[in-house]
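From: lab user (bench 3)
To: helpdesk
Subject: output format question, protein + adenosine-5'-diphosphate

Hello, I'm new to running complex predictions and I'm not sure whether the block I got back is the full result or only part of it. Here's what I submitted:
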Amino acid sequence: MTLKRVLIANRGEIAVRVVRACKALGIESVVAVSTADKNSLAPQLADRAVCIGPARVGDSYLNQNALLAAALGTGAEAVHPGYGFLAENPKFVKACEENNLIFVGPKSESVEKMGNKLAAREIANQFGVPVVPGSPRIARFEDAAEVAERIGFPLLFKAAAGGGGRGIRIVNQSSELKNAFQSASAEAEAAFGDNTLYMERYVVSARHIEIQVFGDKDGNGIHLGERDCSMQRRYQKIIEEAPAVMVPDKTREAIRAAAVTLVKGISYHNAGTVEFIYDEERDEFYFLEMNTRIQVEHPVTEMITGIDLVQLQLKIAGGETIPYRQSDIKLSGHAIECRINAESPQNSFHPSPGRITRWDPPQIEGVRLDSHCFEGYVVPPFYDSLLAKLIIHGQDRQDALVKTREALENFKVEGISTNIDFLRFLTNESDFETGHYNTRWVEANIDRFLP
Ligand code: ADP
Ligand code: ADP
Ligand code: MG
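Helpdesk reply: Thanks, we reran it on our side. This is the complete output you should expect:
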């Protein structure tokens, strides 16, 4: 069975990305838009657009009833959730299932199981996948002191429902426990409506390594290699690359195998990402979380595998099995992705919405741009600040790096502030050139960019 019509329950670059995949497969696309997005790119490219409510996300992109009504009312048989918003909300996935709508993603049980990080840690444990030494739920900060004694400092408070780097606080010594607990708990409540926290040992010299996986209805499970997303600011990714650098091949294979064990173990269906922390000093890796959706940085994997991951998601949702065996997956060259955001590094990285008066991306071979922006587009103040993803494929890492620098040099945006200068700084650093960076590199070096 091939899908005929899909509702896209998202906005921005990922809505455009899904529309393109639908077109390539001959599937009709219907984009759900808020009033603030009526004139954006995705509804212009799609076969149809349906307004689901006002700008505020609670009234539109998080409004389950409006989205279900949009899907049913337009005769869509499936819903693609993109990332963020309702992509990992088990209630929404269940509601789709109950309305006979195919959710382009895993079954609601999988989203439920892996959506809560505490529950996911348990499952990883059960399949012999190592997790970061940590705690169960910490209900009161008084309980934290005891756990801190056991796992040692530095440590992190993390939100069980967390995502997008929110609800995470580092604690260096016991005097900081109370404040960190309270602010993590408040942020988690505000961002996810769930203030459940737990603790993990903080891996000081860490690389973020994640594995792209797929599963299907016959219980097949494969990986498509890893991505290194260690260039981060405040636990949020800025630059991603594939394959990972500076990880010994033996460890790389062990991480990939652990991810596949998990996918098969939970009979996972469709695309997912298993995230790990790699401890450089100990040459050990630990499960962090599983994202049960397409990831922002999926294009770097597409560049080195030659496989369109969103098309594959749609095919599997339509009932197909994975058309590859593990041995069919061949990785070629190196890919780097830079996240271009509407934000002002000079002004504490504050969002910078407004009208784009010049949008002049680089025209260079081997450079791909995933974006919903154009000259004259007004970036609304209500949503994520991601404007574009600049994706570069090279024969090897050095080739990709040279092209990345050239592309960033030739990317001109006016009317709003962007982080392009910051990305130029990062990619010109010798530590980036040699691959010697970890998740704390930005924090340790930002003073040289912003004196
Ligand atoms: P990725 O893991 O794909 O790199 P990010 O962590 O950057 O994704 O998140 C992508 C988008 O999804 C961001 O807008 C982020 O705020 C949002 N997001 C991620 N996880 C959640 C969640 N659990 N709840 C709500 N929004 C989320
Ligand atoms: P989110 O759901 O917000 O993406 P993650 O658990 O994936 O949360 O963690 C986000 C980032 O925080 C990681 O990529 C890493 O940089 C950092 N981090 C998380 N847990 C640890 C840890 N135990 N030690 C060191 N860094 C960590
Ligand atoms: Mg994560």
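A quick orientation on your result: The radius of gyration is 21 Å. Let us know if anything else is unclear.
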